[in-house]
């Protein structure tokens, strides 16, 4: 029973240790609408309309130097198409199309950018030209596997433009084979089409089970982040007119809340702190230090990257994205090497009998050396610039409230640091509880202590390696 409790305590920290992509939090929110165009020949294509959140709208218009009037010009359309939209071809325009179990290539045409109220819109067509007999098991989904962008189907966002006597029905089903970040399951549109006039084709039965508790909770987190983004935009606009008005404190307060919520999702920072404090002795103080150091380095690197992109190279968000892609392999490689060093050290100590000695925990690393190690790991972990911070800075630059934007990043970092610190404290407590429970059995205690040290270091090394490979293959 005691062993089961110990394993349970240790395993509770493990779900955060298996990310499959570098980014883990949405920074842009998009409402997606799909219009399926069918005639007697089959499915000619699908029109997509993407409605972006207000904060990203202001950020990208500022970055490209456009307003409503200049956006409508051929030059404005070319700036958006070549400077932003075309890059999505590397990700198949976030679109999955399958027919008869075969994934189809995605190409686009008739792209146009515009504004709907104060929100940016992409409109484009995905030509398919699929005859009716090829529409068996057809499905289509729109999602970003990297989770930089949260693609959500708009209310009544699936429509049909039907010409002729063809009949069609549809159903929304979870595409579980496309699950990313372990709990995010994109919805896919399934079609059933009949060329018989007056027919009522039925979509074949499929999975319709309800999402699990974690998926529902993270769905609430996603909705909260989207709502907070809209509120931050509204207060930011007020600050442009009255920099020291009541909106300032609401803007800063919501920035803190946004940071807390934003850090709840999966990410390599929490995975590192859990692995670190599972493998090494820690305290509430060192947990808070590491949790906040990671987030402040994460934010600070974004400020430096955005500053260089805007002030030195005049490349805007495009320059930030290029810098971030260049930094990622180096940062993740350093993380993997640091994990490898810790693993080799743990193996060396084990071979010398240090991890299994009676006074293994008593002979902990000196406090000064431990703090230096924590700060070094924190720097490497947070080195990758935060895209969310970049969006907020671009938004602030566009509204000419740069200093307010920088203050918001500091407050947001405190919020993210709080969440990361709580994960660190949980790992510290789990390790102490596991070792305390096994204290009366010296052999079990020694084996568990050695196992946590080895597994924690190996987890950091594996995490850095996985992220490194992912950054090189995107």
TrEMBL record:
Membrane-spanning intervals of the chain: 247-265, 286-310, 330-348, 373-397, 403-426, 447-469
Q: Point out the signal peptide segment.
A: 1-18
A family per Pfam:
DUF1007
Q: Which GO terms describe its biological process?
A: cobalt ion transport; response to cobalt ion; response to nickel cation
Membrane topology annotation: Multi-pass membrane protein
Q: Which family does it belong to?
A: Belongs to the NiCoT transporter (TC 2.A.52) family.
Protein's name in the database: Nickel/cobalt efflux system
- Lineage, top ranks: Bacteria, Pseudomonadati, Thermodesulfobacteriota, Desulfovibrionia, Desulfovibrionales
